[in-house]
Design a protein that fits this description.
The structure holds two protein chains of two kinds.
Chain A (H helix, E strand, L loop, with lengths): L1 H4 L31 E3 L1 H10 L5 E5 L8 H7 L4 E3 L4 H13 L3 E7 H7 L1 H9 L6 E5 L16 H6 L5 E3 L4 H13 L4 E5 L3 E3 L15 E4 L4 E5 L3 H14 L4 E5 L2 E3 L3 H8 L5 E9 L4 H12 L5 E6 L9 H7 L4 H11 L1
Parallel strand pairs in A: 2-3, 2-4, 4-5, 5-7, 6-7, 10-11, 10-13, 13-14
Antiparallel strand pairs in A: 1-8, 6-12, 9-11
Helix pairs in contact in A: 2-3, 2-8, 4-6, 9-13, 10-11
Chain B lengths: L14 H19 L4 H18 L14 E4 L5 H10 L40 H14 L6 E6 L6 H12 L5 E7 L18 H6 L3 E6 L3 H13 L6 E6 L7 H4 L13 H10 L5
Parallel strand pairs in B: 1-2, 2-3, 3-5, 4-5
Classes of the chains: A alpha/beta, B alpha/beta.
């Protein structure tokens, strides 16, 4: 009960804070980060792809509006299936459609796919190697709604599933590039989704998503940050701030969590005695950090290794910026922790 | 797609004879391992005979023929029964019976799509089959393929909530190409299904969800054939279910009369005894 004991008693009265942040609740967005944003990149990319591929279908379990699938449904109404609030059915039916030769993209929240529908994704889809594409919103800590909606362990769960490719894109640019790559991939894919107004982070770096490839976004002599998802955005911000203080940080973006680009990660971690920090929007248990740590140990590479990630706890509800500070995912937190480790 | 009526698979062999052969193949497989879900196989043999020798369009030499009717086995442990039917239908060779459940066999003890020609889905984790069948039914309609999807599920499987998600979805999507077959033998792992989570009456439950439901004696071949025909020919735009009351170990009286459990015990010397009994009872 240690995780609960940190919280105040539910019987203790509270007052409205004078300068409190509004709770960003369910549909929290990362749009207040000082970057340009692009609306619904997943929905638009899927809709565009469907113009040239008749096999692409869309399914959702009553969350099309909240996974940007509604864009596809609007543009291709005859190719969208509303499956209702039934995630086990969502993935079973997607498996059946894949058996009939289609490439279904099925969306829900990451918590429901990973926790509720695991057996169905495992046995109906992954064990058969069927090309069902699972795109899930609210990965990690991207909602203030509390543990029912915070998929803090989805990567750990999905990484453990044989035959499943797992990706964690950073931004709108990468999501748009990943959609056709995911569709082209011959087997099942679990894709973490940022939805709504999604920042453009990687556009200025000339980045191209490639399935299975880690890519250096910026070089640096002192620290190597290995990151996925929106934590690459935070890593880049942290690297800028650290650079102003004379700490030179490289950022290696690893959008494909499984299969992991071990060659690139080991090669980068072997260079020049840098502190290696893995930063992820996920529990420190079972995600990118432990995957990278194990890969380095297997390769006999032993840099100083640290993890930035969510604690192995059920997290608090609250405003997303507050929670990102509290749990160490903000750029400022990353800067402070790296300075402490130097 | 018109050239593949079930008659193409054969001759004038009666459905009763087909069921007899299916029982015999299953007993021979059980004998290989000294165990198996033989109670279920003997019980469902009549339904499988009607399925594979009356209802389904298929091409034994082309199990993935696009025009085939899809037969989805949710209940992976019934694989021994489906293998027996596939052998009788010439989809699997009879001379592989001795490999049943062995290393490298195409007939593992739980049915999986990747192992066996004619096995459409991987069953065993119960409550998956009907949802997959819904997806296949949707896919066939998209392709304007007139084939049907059959899903054989068990009474115990009706305890899985996911089955009822699929029950609702099939109606929502007006899947008139979907036929569910429920084997109601009132046995599941811990005892009687009706003592666990399967409260009769069943047909009215399916009807309340919008399905066309029939409840029949699943060991009465004429009743099974009539029900399969009615399900297939129904003009309504809704899915169909046939609830088949079956008797575990049907066709081998000394097994029928023993204390029936989910996994019926058969002693080493009893396989031959059962086969000998069957040999004396071959139908016309």
């Amino acid at each position: 009960m240690t995780t609960l004991s940190r919280r105040k008693s539910k019987y203790e009265p509270r007052q409205a804070p004078r300068d409190g942040k509004a709770t960003s609740a369910m549909i929290a967005s990362l749009d207040a980060e000082g970057r340009d944003t692009i609306a619904a990149p997943f929905g638009h990319a899927l809709s565009e792809l469907a113009q040239t591929r008749d096999d692409i279908l869309g399914l959702s379990a009553d969350l099309s509006k909240y996974t940007d699938m509604h864009i596809f449904a609007r543009d291709h109404p005859d190719r969208f299936y509303q499956m209702g609030m039934a995630e086990q059915l969502l993935f079973s039916a997607a498996a059946g459609l894949a058996r009939e030769g289609f490439t279904p993209f099925a969306t829900t929240y990451a918590v429901f796919a990973s926790r509720r529908a695991y057996d169905f994704i495992a046995m109906a889809i992954a064990e058969e190697g069927l090309p069902v594409k699972i795109a899930c919103a609210l990965p990690g800590l991207t909602t203030g709604y509390g543990p029912s909606h915070q998929a803090t362990e989805d990567l750990a769960i999905m990484r453990a599933m044989p035959g499943l490719t797992v990706i964690d894109p950073c931004d709108a640019i990468e999501i748009a590039q990943a959609v056709p790559a995911v569709a082209d991939h011959p087997g099942p894919v679990y894709m973490r989704l940022l939805r709504g107004k999604v920042p453009d982070v990687l556009g200025r770096y000339g980045y191209r998503f490639e399935m299975g490839k880690a890519k250096e976004i910026r070089g640096g002599r002192d620290v190597l940050i290995v990151s996925s998802g929106f934590m690459t955005m935070r890593a880049l911000d942290a690297a800028d701030a650290l650079g102003r203080d004379g700490v030179d940080c490289a950022v290696l973006h690893v959008p494909t969590i499984k299969p992991l680009d071990v060659d690139t990660i080991v090669a980068e971690a072997s260079k020049g005695g840098r502190l290696v920090v893995v930063a992820e929007n996920h529990s420190v248990t079972g995600g990118l950090g432990e995957a990278v740590g194990a890969a380095l140990m297997r390769a006999g590479v032993h840099p100083t290794f640290r993890q930035v990630g969510l604690p192995d706890e059920f997290l608090d509800a609250g405003a997303l910026p507050t929670l990102h500070e509290q749990y160490g995912l903000s750029a400022g937190s990353v800067v402070a922790r790296i300075k402490g480790w130097m | 797609m018109q050239d593949a009526s079930p008659a193409r698979r054969g001759d004038n062999t009666s459905l009763a004879r087909r069921a007899w052969h299916i029982r015999r193949h299953a007993l021979r497989m059980g004998q290989v391992q000294g165990q198996g879900y033989i109670g279920q196989a003997l019980g469902i043999a009549d339904v499988l005979a009607v399925s594979y020798f009356h209802a389904l369009n298929l091409r034994p030499d082309d199990p993935e023929w696009e025009g085939r009717d899809r037969f989805c086995l949710s209940i992976g442990h019934y694989a021994i029964a489906l293998y027996a039917a596939l052998i009788e239908a010439n989809v699997l060779p009879e001379d592989e019976i001795g490999t049943y459940g062995m290393d490298d066999s195409r007939m593992p003890m739980s049915g999986m799509a990747a192992y066996t020609p004619g096995m459409e889905i991987t069953g065993g984790s119960l409550g998956h089959g009907l949802g997959i069948a819904v997806g296949m039914g949707l896919g066939l309609k998209r392709k304007k393929n007139p084939a049907f999807v059959y899903n054989l599920l068990s009474d115990g499987e009706l305890g899985e909530g996911s089955t009822w998600e699929a029950v609702m979805s099939a109606v929502q999507h007006r899947l008139d190409n979907l036929i569910a077959i429920v084997d109601f033998n009132d046995q599941q792992a811990d005892g009687k299904t009706t003592d666990a989570l399967c409260v009769p009456p069943l047909a009215p439950k399916w009807e309340a969800f919008g399905w066309h439901a029939q409840e029949i004696d699943g060991n009465d071949i004429e009743a099974v054939r009539a029900a399969f025909d009615a399900a297939r020919n129904l003009p309504d735009a809704r899915p169909r279910v046939i609830i088949c009351h079956t008797t575990m170990c049907k066709g081998v009286p000394f097994l029928e009369n023993r204390e029936i459990t989910h996994f019926v015990r058969v002693d080493a010397d009893e396989w031959d005894k059962a086969l000998t009994y069957l040999d004396g009872e071959m139908p016309a």
